[in-house]
Amino acid sequence: MNMRRTVGACRAATALSTLTSIFASTRSFALTHSFPLIRRFPRTGMSAPTAISARARGLAPSRRFAVVAGFALMSSVVLAIGIPEAASAQTLRIALRQDLDTMDPTMSTTYVGRIVFAGMCDKLFDIDTKLSIVPQLATGYEWTDPKTLVIHLREGVLFQDGEKLDADAVKVTLERYLTMPGSFRRSEIALIDHIDIIDPLTLRIGLKAPSGAFLAQLTDRSGMPLAPQAAAKEGKDFTLHPVCAGPFKFVDRVAQDHVTLERFPGYWDNKDIHFDRVVYQILVDNSVRLANLKTGSVDLAEYIAPTDAAAVKADPKLRLVISDALGYFGITNNLDNGPQAKTPYGQNALVRQAFSLAIDRQALVNVVYNGMFAPTMQAVPNSSPFFDPALTVPARDVAKAKALLTQAGVTLPVKLDLLAFNNPDVMQAAEVIQSMTAEAGFDVQIKSMEFASSLAASQTGDYQAYMIGWSGRLDIDGNTYAFLHSKQGNNVSHYANPTVDQLLDEARGLTDIAKRNALYAQMWTQEQQDLPITYLWTPNNIVGMSAKLTGFRPVPDGMIRVQGLAMGK
Amino acid sequence: MRGHLGSRIAQIIPTLLLVSVLVFCLQQLMPGDPAMVMAGEQAGDTQVVAQIRAELWLDRPLPVQYLHWMGNVLHGNLGYSWRIREPVAQLIAQKLPVTLQLSVMAFLIAVAIGVPTGIIAAVKRNTVWDYLANAIGLAGLSTPTFWLGIMLILLVSVQLGWLPPSGYVSLAENWRQSLATTIMPAFVLGNAIAAILMRHTRSAMLTALDQDYVRTARAKGLREWGVVIRHALRNALIPVVTLGALELGTLLSGAVLTEQVFSIPGFGKMIVDAVFDRDYPVVQGVVLVTAFLIVMLNLIADLLYVVINPRLRGA
Fold it and tell me: How many CB pairs under 8 A join A and B?
């Protein structure tokens, strides 16, 4: 019997003896052997209080035995199966908030899928806690001209099936991402014009146009080299047997349940790997995820609900780490997408400005997220090098909002349908906004739909205002261009402003951050006038973990980097 | 009896065909575009969405889509999950043992609690035992499964540390851990069904105990429990078996909330996720397999009637 089981038995014994004496009054094998702390009554084997109590009630011994037998049986079953053996100290268990989709980075679209890839697939480049791009499988890069990127690869890197990582493998992967039917990477790296191999460890990528955002794409799935032979052999079934060049190799996956990875002994950075296995467990319910963390069934939960953060903080066995995330949450406004745009709210920017001013963003995040998220007016977190410090969150001003509505000449109350997908947090936020804006003269009706339906409604223009977030990208281009540029599909507002288009185009073609920020500052000025998107808050990554776990790096992309993680004593 | 059995077996194929047409047509009524859901954050890219539509045959007429799918099913191919990109048959093969184990355990718990309490409530009619059994039944019926599940996790796992709060281990991998991870969800599911079984057993037993043959058996001097078990219960069991088969069928179609709370990877969770993700092949595959299981269960129930009541053998 190991220590954990002994402690468990003692705790159980204590609880039983104090809470329910009848529970302890059994002759069962399990009880006799697992509850040494309970003093058995000499003749019957029952604990004294129960035996006395049973006799006092005049129960015959056989009846007494029948009464306790059921409980004894239950306790025997529970104790016989007991809590599973303590997980091996060499297994890291990570709880994910939802199930991932495919295990092929080519086809993957989910955020949690990226977390699993972080344990399995190294990338050409990574980002650090300060959002700087740092080499991983590459050792460095240089722009030989604004359209040509040269990447130098690390020597001696192996894929998990023993293949060598070289320039050819990277080229084959990028070509797979670009050409494979159904690839979700294609649009991320569509700027690639050609790839040349200079030598086995150097390759040159020629772009169709200059891009300041291209390198950032190689810090995510588009930068994950896949084992060329395995990818060619498996084709679309690569998801069943994925092979990358990361620290842990794929073992098995049961959808909606878990993914198991096993340490790859040939990993190039093995000195930073301190676990033999990593198990990603899908725990959708916030309370259940927290319970698993508290009982030690998982070592780390990649997301703790803000309302549960206090419980984690209060537990000395646990640690809470909060860091900026890359995304945002806001209200996308329908300006020109079908008949639903033909409302005072969709047609008059003053009405949208009034609506924005009527919202107290700080109070909103205080109510819904216990103040753990940051109010914002822009698409990037304040830790981003693209954050515009001049764009501050204005205080709520109901009088000014009313004045703007008067200036707009609209009839009060201004009716507005607010589309929200049926997530409890989002619904609560919608209700708070409904209440706040009512004071300024808005009559907000909340339309709730499940996510897929709301997404379809936003694309077809069947909405007036839509509460939706974006998980975020390292480069500001990934958080703005697709949503604000007139020629982009994710611009479901159908917002079209030539000045904004020009500024976004110019900014993405530059690599100098200061010059880009100057252009983005102009873009924000126009965006704040037109308000195709009313930005509300920047979420935070709230990670809960065992206090014994060391080496955790809170990177804003929310990925759990297994390198350096270790379980202390 | 053989004729009856033959006709029941002959009904299986048309039933499954009808189910397949129904599920195929009904899911088309759902709002939302599967291609857009699959495109994820690239849902705005019309080129990506059009490509997905073409790849999944969503740009073809509905009858063509159905026939394509059904043709594959008849060849033993349930298709690929659009979201997970794994064969549906493989996903079902992963989930079916989980659902079967959980369902059977829940059902056994339900029978172990529901039938004896129902008998006791009937035999001890209008006594404290009857009231107690009714109270337990009412509590079981009116306790929401997700609430009971969370409470059990907090008490048994977090406070007492007896059982793991969630997760699943297969019986083949480690039977002890498997029981440890499934006993709480099985109890939660079984608890609600036990209440229903108790009510029906009690009602059927009360009717049976008022019958002449029971009075005759007593008059012959048989022991009371012999009368109850051998004579009354046997006849009272027919409606209970019918109900049990229906309840077991419901269990096999998945217990969404319980699976969610205890993170059990069974049919319920899979089908709900598939519906939200518009993963039509998974929805169709799971519904078809579940329908087959339910049809088979009803067949077994029919056979059980004959075992329980010999008079039906000549029917």
Answer: 177
Q: Is A232 on the interface with B (CB under 8 A)?
A: no
What are phi and psi for residue B136, nearest 5 degrees? Answer: -65, -40
Cβ contact A79–B162 (<8 Å): yes
Which are the contacts of A56, defined by CB distance < 8 A and separation ≥ 6?
Answer: none
Helix count and strand count (H, E) for chain A: 20, 21
B246 CB burial (10 A radius; 0-12, 13-18, 19+) = middle
From chain B, pick out residues whose CB is under 8 angstroms from the CB of A99. 273
Residues 117 through 176 of chain A touching chain B, CB cutoff 8 Å: none
Q: How far is A394 from chain B (nearest CA, A)?
A: 30
Tell me if B164 and A83 make a contact (CB, 8 A cut-off).
yes
At A48, phi and psi to the nearest 5? Answer: -55, -50
Q: Would you call A377 an interface residue with chain B, using a CB distance cutoff of 8 Å?
A: no
Verify whether the Cβ–Cβ distance B36 to A456 is below 8 Å: yes
Amino acid at A549: L
Reading the block at residue B223, the tokens are 């022991």
Q: What is the CA radius of gyration of chain A?
A: 29
Pairing of strands A192-199, A277-282: unpaired
SS3 content of chain B, % helix, strand, coil (to 5): 80, 0, 20
Residue A245: Cβ-neighbour burial (10 angstroms; 0-12, 13-18, 19+) = buried
Give the model confidence (pLDDT) of B44-61 as tens digits. 777 778 888 888 888 899
DSSP state letter for A197: E
State the number of CA atoms in the 13 A half-sphere of A49 facing the CB.
Answer: 11
Beta strand pairing status for A192-199 and A138-145?
unpaired
Contact A109 B39 (CB under 8 A): yes
Question: In A, residues 474-513, which contact B (CB 8 Å cutoff)?
Answer: 482, 488-492
pLDDT by residue (tens digit) across A104-134?
A: 999 888 889 999 999 999 999 999 988 899 9
Considering only CA atoms, which of A277, A249, A261 is closest in space to residue A162?
A: A249
Name the 3-class secondary structure at A415: strand
A209-235 pLDDT, tens digit per residue, is 999 889 999 999 999 999 999 999 999
Chain A residues in contact with B45 (beta carbon < 8 A): 187, 489-490
Instruction: Render pLDDT for A272-305 as a digit per residue (tens, 0 to 9).
Output: 999 999 999 999 888 889 999 999 999 999 999 9
Task: Name the residue among B37, B163, B169 with its Cβ closest to that of A455.
Answer: B37
Q: What is the pTM of this model?
A: 0.79
ipTM: 0.76
- Pick from B157, B181, B278: CB nearest A291: B157
3-state secondary structure A290-334: HHHHHHCCCCEECCCCHHHHHHHHHCCCEEEEEEECCCEEEEEEC
Secondary structure element (H or E) that encloses residue A469, with its range: strand A465-470
3 state SS of A449: strand
Q: Which of A79-93, A130-144, B16-30 has the lowest mean pLDDT?
A: A79-93
pLDDT of residue B170: 86
Return d(Cα A60, Cα A77) in angstroms, integer.
Answer: 26
Match 């004894």 to its residue by tokens: A72
Q: Tell me the two tokens of residue A247.
A: 């620290």
Instruction: Closest CB to B84: pick one of A80, A102, A283.
Output: A102
DSSP letters spanning A552-569: ----TT-----TT-EE--
